[in-house]
Amino acid sequence: MRASIARTLAVLVPIALFTAGCGSEKAGTGDARSAPTGDRAREVAAAWDGSKAAGVWRAGYYPLSDVVQLPENAFRNEDDKMAYSAENYVLDAELPTGSPQKGKVEWESGSSLSLPLMDARKAYDSVARGGDDGPHLTVTSVKLGRTTLVTSRGPATVPAWLFTLDGYDTPLKRVALEPSVLPGSPIEPLENATDDLMELQQLVEVGRDGRSVTVLAGHGACDDGAGVEVLETAGSVVLSGSIVGASDGDCTAQLLFQKVTVKLKRKLGDRVLLDAFTGAPVTQRRLPTT
Question: Which of 279, 270, 204 is CA-nearest to residue 61?
Answer without folding.
Answer: 270
